[in-house]
Structure formats: C-alpha cells, structure tokens
Amino acid sequence: MAKKDPRSAQIQEDMAPGSLTLVGFLGDDTRSYEAIIQQDEAIFQKEGIEIDQVVKALKKLTFKGVDGLGEPVDVGDYEVSVDHFRGWLYCPFKHKKKVSKRNTTLYDKVTGKTIYWSDLSLHLIEDHHFFQGKGSHFRMEPETLIEVLRLEPLDEK
C-alpha cells in the first residue's frame, strides 16, 4: 500500500470551493481526491488506455483551437474553440505549478457531445491523473473521453 502524502489534508482542503478557485475541484463528490484518482485510473486500465493518450489528444486539440482566436475551428469530426483569460491558476497539489487561464471547448460532430477543459485540467491529468470530482465544472468522465477522443488500447494499434 502506498504511503499517504502528509500534505493530503491540506490538498483536499485546497480543492474545496473558494480556496484556490471559486468552484473548487471536487464538485459534489464525497470521495477523497486519492479515491477519485484511483477509481479513474482503474477505468483507463480496464479499457487498456494510457492516460498519456488522453493528454496528447487534448493538447493537440487545444493547440489547433488556439488558431481560432476564440472562434470555433473545424478539426475533422470536431469543432474546437479556445478562450484565454487574464491571470493564473495554481495547482492544488503543492508544487507551486501555475498555468494560464485558458479553456478549450470540444464539440464532437459525430456523437453530439461537448467536453471542455482548462490548462489546469490538463496539468492535473498529466501530472496527477486527477480528472476532478463528479459534479465539478471541469470534470471529464474517463468513459466519455475514451468515446469522444476515439481512443483505442495501445496493444490494438
């Protein structure tokens, strides 16, 4: 069993609404952030999907959307728009990481589903495997990501 991070209580507290962000990172989820991470990782593992696949796809779409300067950009089966805001957001995981306030919206023309993420969301996923709590404004469900991004298990490529 992994040793519990001694900063865990402070990290959990900083994820609450009003601490680092107005809406927080947990939504109405009652699980600890550690439990959220563990359960989301299990979904990807069961599907044979690496979290790096998710990160690469989301980053690629963000970069394509930047060219639209806030207007939607046609990217094959998707429409992507990126909005920039002034200021910075800080990571709740206590390593002094800050990212710009930039949000990406992805509309999947095939499924009709829309997902959105911030640059902080990308950092949380890439570095911490944290997709945020259920009900959180920026929560992305693993199953939805796999479907919308059309991710395939690595061993099937």
Count of folded domains = 1
What share of residues are in beta strands?
Answer: 15-25%
Number of strands: 4
The helix/strand order is HHHEEEEHH
Kindly provide the radius of gyration, computed on alpha-carbon positions and rounded to a whole number of angstroms. Answer: 16 Å
Which structural class fits the helix and strand makeup? Answer: alpha+beta
Poorly predicted ranges: none
General shape: globular
How much helix is in the residues? Answer: 25-40%
Termini distance?
Answer: 33 Å
For the largest sheet, list the strands in their spatial order: 1-2-3-4
How many helical elements? 5
Overview of this structure, please?
It is a single chain. The protein is of the alpha+beta class and 157 residues long. It has one domain. The protein has helices at residues 8-14, 33-47, 51-66, 119-128, 142-148, and strands at residues 73-75, 78-90, 98-108, 114-118. β3 (98-108) and β4 form a beta hairpin. The longest helix is centred in the middle third of the chain and has 16 residues, at 51-66. The chain is globular. 23% of the residues are buried.
